[in-house]
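Table 4 source record.
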Amino acid sequence: MELDTALEQAGGFGRFQVMMFVLMGFVNMRGAGFLLGIVFVGDEPSHHCSIPANATVNHSIPMVMEEGQLVKDKCHQYIYDPRTGNKSTAPCRNGWKFDTDYESTVVTEWSLVCDQNYLVELSTTIFILGLSFGSIIISPFSDKFGRKWVLIICLMMQAILGIGLAFVTDIYQFIVLRFFIGALNRAIDIISFVLMTECFPAKHRTWPCIYNQMFWGVGLMLIALLAYFVKNWRYLELSFSVPILLMISYAWFVPESMLWLLSVKKDTQANKILQRVAKMNGTTLPVNCLSLEEKEDMIPMSDKSKHPSGTDQKVNDEEHDKVTSSLVTHEVESKDKVITRQVRPDDVVVKTVWCCPEVRDRPCIADNECALTFVNLCCHPKMRRYTTIVCFLWMVNSLDYYGISMSTSTLAGNRYLNFFISAAVELPAYVLVAYTLKRYGRRKSICAFHIISGVANIISVIIPLSIGKTEHDYLITVLAMIGKFGITGSFCSMFLYSAEVFPTIVRNSAIGFASFWDTVGGMAAPFILYAAKTRNVPELPRSVFGSFSLIAGILTLLLPETANRPLPETIADVESWHVSDFSCKTIKTGLCRHKRQTQGDKDET
């Protein structure tokens, strides 16, 4: 019996699956503090130079113009010549005085202002660089050693490093530890998501994959609550790290992935876990009912963590079930991974795989470099265009999402409430994504979410001050929340779309390349905020975020619709798509026709 069938007979979506969904959701929630807790840990309060006890602020601090108002200079003070009585400006000599309700942040403790005010943004960029390192280097270990134990070890290491972060003595130690915490953060996200996904039968994977993101939104809301009550950055870091120690208890009641066990030929262990699943779900299964290797169904760690979904997996499984009898499975090694694909026994010349022209007629199985590298995506016009646009969308999603999230402390109003609301708007976005992706398809949904975010950001830039400063500032805050809602919906949708638009033979490397641009956007976001801060141009981030979102929304119209299509197996499949074939009705009709044709081919065989 195949595992997917066995999981269905063992309850499908039962108590065991709910338990895994919740437990892995807590793991997802954990990562929010490490990524965006820096909004409070590294907040830069209002400040000016410290002055002698016998001096007054008005006579010691110059006034400068910011946003049309006179404010105290943050980095300079007056120096009086006792002989002449003349005064001149000079950099702060006795440190800074901070106007804040914080007990301490990394900025106030290490005076990261003026010529050192870039270091907090640098720590965020290094953290995001660590995310990329973790997805490339750490997460593949779970393919070799198993999901469960690699996850437990990573959680333990992150808890130790997170606790250590609360005891560092300078900003450079802080930055280094943030890099490794970031690497573990992404690896944990990927492994936990895949472990959760692999415990669901194919047809039940859609909702868990989407709604698992709601735990992330709740985690962001908890950051605001913790920061409101914990004013010392060291204690705040401990509040992010210490609860992870409780997750080490997962070692006793979270089972290993049955798909992974079958892939490494540990059928006995997989059968034992399946019996536990059936018992927990209140059903029974025959003993040792699993005997087939399921290697081809295993979700590789080199894929982006959140892309598996019920929709793509279900369609793919149904199509493959119809042609399995006439297919032969071949494993072909690329530079760094094994890709399992299916070809007909007599299809040994690459006519349907579509390599570059110079190697198109070479044998596919014997010369296995053919059609297995990302470079092949650039050899064909449609695939090249789709790849370029998808990578741009990933970059814009990351740039806007992190940029808007990190800029909430600069908005008018209470910084804690602003951050809480910006997190809360993600929850309805996830709910709406689940509906729109099914009702209107991927392409229209992604386009709409980008347009919503872009329009909200652009409007916030052009609002006239004549309406009144208070009304102006609060309207900008409202529009920022709408922008966050839109970019959250787009970000969530892109995980699914990326998995559906790239063909099977290059999906791993293609999604990996797209996620690289996600990292680029995330690394750029802090420095756009830094440029706005140092150049005194508060409209700069919203202008950049809004413009890029609008461009991304328009470019989305040049992509194909993937809803209700079978997953493309080869580049030729994608090249045969037409951008005009966007109607869901048209796609459904074509899918039915394709199924009938496939069934006819099988009957002839």
